[in-house]
Amino acid sequence: MTATSDNYPKALIRPVQYRDLNWLEGITTETNQVAQSSLSFSEQLQQVRRWFGVLKCLRLFPNSFQNHFRVYVAELPHPSDLRIKQLKGFIHISPFNLGRSTWRVERVMVACDQEQPELLTNPKGVASQLLRHCLETVWEARTWVLEVNVNEKNTLALYRQNGFQPLAQLTYWLLGSELLQTLSQENSELPNLLPVSNADAHLLYQLDCVSMPPLLRQVFDRNPQDFKTPFFKGFCSKWQQWLQQKEVAQGYVFEPQRKAAIGYFKITFSRDGSQPHQAQLIVHPAYTWLYPKLLAQMAQIAQKFPSQSLELVSADYQHERQEYLEKLGANPIEHNLLMSRSVWHKLKEAKPEGLHLSEMLQGLQAVPRTPIPSRFSWVKQPINTSEKNQTSSQNHRQKIENDCFESSEKIDQD
User: Fold this and answer.
1) Is residue 35 a contact partner of residue 45, using CB atoms and an 8 Å limit?
2) C-beta separation of 289 from 296 below 8 A
3) Got the DSSP string for 58-123?
4) Largest CA-CA distance found in the chain, in angstroms, rounded
5) What is the enclosing helix (H) or strand (E) of 247?
6) Class of residue 357 by CB neighbours under 10 A (exposed 0-12, middle 13-18, buried 19+)
7) In degrees to the nearest 10, what's the CA dihedral of 267, 270, 275, 277?
8) Pairing relation of β-strands 246-255 and 143-149?
9) What is the C-alpha separation between 213 and 236, in angstroms, rounded?
């Protein structure tokens, strides 16, 4: 039984259980892959280990934590003993927006993918089976998005084989502590810099829409509710930040004439200095002069925390940001590819056997039909001249036969 054969063994895919957490932590340490979000996957595992029972109960009814840490694992039978099941891979997914019309593939990992790359790149391998399971199970997902490093050729091939197409190129920049100290000394006067609250969700939603291309906006499918923080979720977020020695600062720039938000930033600071600060920045395309002001403002806030570098991201459609960061001397540390997969791929791949389109579309073809006679027509009229001539000849032939028959009868009587 080889992984490259067409009859690749079908894996048993199930939701993660508590006994699988040790294996997840081990495979994450071996592959040395860390999530791009503010929390690494190892930190998430530590949290889930403490609250696994509570999270399992929350999945039973709709709530904001129903899809928190949604992980599926794949099991394959042992080659020597089929009764023994061994874990071969897992997939981590999460909803991208509040409406759950767009979902995100956080990571797909397969055991021994360095020694056996076919487990990851084979169209019928474990990784493809995990992806297919999520695409078929999450029925509410209209679009799927993910990020992949451009240097990970095997992972990139896996996603391309399963219908994912590139959307944008993302570059992660690192601003050193010395550069932040230099930026903090520059002028950062912003008279309309305001704190963020739930009342400003509509302004932030408009800023988010205008700052990205239409195709990206359609894929993300956000709404004003995505920029609001519920009370219970905000309380849990504050508690989580206190446990992990982190603090969040955010604000937006308001334009009173247009009554719109033209700039927004959010920074997650590490109070113990163990990780770099991570920032999210959104600037209106018509107000690119805000980049020096907002970066200087963020650098000044960062001086209140331990000296650490700042991580920032730019996309290929944000040319002004990339040019400014290059001019500033920031260090590009990672190049990722943002990819998406539409739900319409399901219809192309399904090919249902009971659906015969040729028979359904046959009724749309032009078929010559006899016109329906009007209610004033008592005798059927011929359709064309040929039919009329044919009818008249038949009537003449019948008349001749009748006359001959009558004359023969008359002769017999005589």
Assistant:
1) no
2) no
3) HTTS-STTTTTTEEEEEEEE-SS-TT-EEEEEEEEEEESSTT-SEEEEEEEEETTTTT-THHHHST
4) 139
5) strand 246-255
6) exposed
7) 20
8) unpaired
9) 33
Contact 20, 87 (CB under 8 A): yes
pLDDT, tens digit (0-9, with 9 covering 90-100), for 271-280? 888 889 999 9
The DSSP code for 32 is T
> What distance in Å separates the CA atoms of residue 75 and residue 126, rounded to the nearest whole number?
9
pLDDT tens digits for 260-305? 999 999 999 988 888 899 999 999 999 999 999 999 999 999 999 9
Contacts of 374 (CB under 8 A, 6+ apart): none
Amino acid at 270: S
Residue whose pair of structure tokens reads 């001539």 in the numeric block: 389
User: What whole-number distance in Å separates Cα of residue 107 and Cα of residue 159?
Assistant: 11
Would the pLDDT of 371 be above 70?
no
Strand 310-315 vs strand 193-195: parallel, antiparallel, or unpaired?
A: unpaired
CA angle 292, 295, 301 (to 5 degrees): 140
> pLDDT tens, 316-333?
999 999 999 999 999 999
Task: Please give the mean pLDDT across all residues of the chain.
Answer: 82
Q: DSSP secondary structure string, 290-352?
A: HHHHHHHHHHHHHTTS-S--EEEEEETT-HHHHHHHHHHTPEEEEEEEEEEEETHHHHHHH--
Q: Is 231 in contact with 207 (CB distance < 8 Å)?
A: no
HSE, side-chain direction, 13 A CA sphere, residue 382: 9
Instruction: With H, G, I as helix, E, B as strand and everything else as coil, classify residue 143.
Output: strand
- Exposed (0-12), middle (13-18) or buried (19+): which is 222, by Cβ within 10 Å? buried
pLDDT category, 40, cuts 50, 70, 90? confident
Specify whether the CB–CB gap between 301 and 308 falls below 8 A.
no
- Rg of the chain taking only CA atoms, in angstroms: 34
Cβ atoms within 10 A of the Cβ of 147, count? 20
- Packed helices 177-184 and 290-302: angle between N→C axes, nearest 10 degrees: 110
Please state, in angstroms and rounded to a whole number, the distance separating the CA atoms of residues 40 and 164: 24
285 within 8 A of 210, measured Cβ to Cβ: yes
Phi and psi, residue 25, nearest 5°:
-65, -35
3-state DSSP assignment of residue 5: coil
CB 284 within 8 A of CB 207: yes
